């Protein structure tokens, strides 16, 4: 089983969620921890939807004293170009949080494109099995839903390996549990997640 570090050992306000660290995001965390050794003052944080990238960026800002531009792909390119230059001139770290890296992020301004190419990248990958289970357990507990280990294993083995699918499954279970005023069980999860279209291919024991 993959090892999981919980939570990220950076200064955090008690109101923050813990950032769960596993093999799929550990390298991104380490890149951000070592911001002082970046070859330039601007770094990129890229990750899938609902992967915790905004939380990780807030922790980075608190730890480094730097600036974060979340959703950088939606900002004017000239503004990003000047922000990159300001960070370099002030020797103050800047983190651009993006959904995709070039060339998928189609940067038209040549000067910005060259600067982004020189920036270190912290990339959050799809969650591994251990992180899927940990996310399910944490998010269900946050909703006040009690999930036994066998139920967590059952769900984790059948949903898509993505942060969005994990949180979508929790949302669906929470909504149905409130509607039906019922606790969680494997049959309840099967019906709920099937109706929500969140179950993948059946496993051998399901057949």
From TrEMBL:
Hda lid domain: residues covered: 133-193
Pfam family, one: Hda_lid
Gene3D superfamilies in the cross-refs: 1.10.8.60
Protein name: Chromosomal replication initiator DnaA
């Amino acid at each position: 089983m993959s090892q999981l570090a919980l939570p990220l050992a950076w200064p955090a306000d008690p109101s923050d969620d813990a950032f769960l660290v596993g093999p799929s995001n550990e390298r991104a965390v380490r890149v951000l921890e070592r911001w002082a050794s970046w070859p330039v003052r601007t770094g990129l944080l890229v990750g899938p939807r609902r992967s915790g990238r905004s939380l990780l960026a807030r922790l980075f800002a608190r730890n480094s004293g730097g600036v974060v531009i979340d959703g950088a792909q939606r900002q004017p390119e000239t503004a990003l170009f000047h922000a990159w230059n300001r960070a370099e001139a002030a020797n103050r770290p800047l983190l651009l949080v993006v959904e995709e890296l070039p060339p998928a992020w189609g940067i038209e301004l040549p000067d910005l494109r060259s600067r982004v190419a020189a920036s270190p990248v912290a990339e959050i990958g799809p969650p591994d099995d251990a992180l899927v289970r940990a996310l399910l357990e944490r998010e269900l507990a946050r909703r006040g839903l009690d999930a036994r280990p066998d139920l967590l294993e059952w769900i984790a083995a059948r949903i898509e390996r993505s942060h969005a699918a994990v949180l979508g499954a929790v949302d669906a279970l929470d909504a149905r549990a409130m509607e039906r005023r019922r606790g969680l069980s494997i049959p309840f999860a099967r019906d709920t997640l099937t109706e929500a279209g969140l179950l993948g291919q059946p496993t051998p024991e399901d057949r």
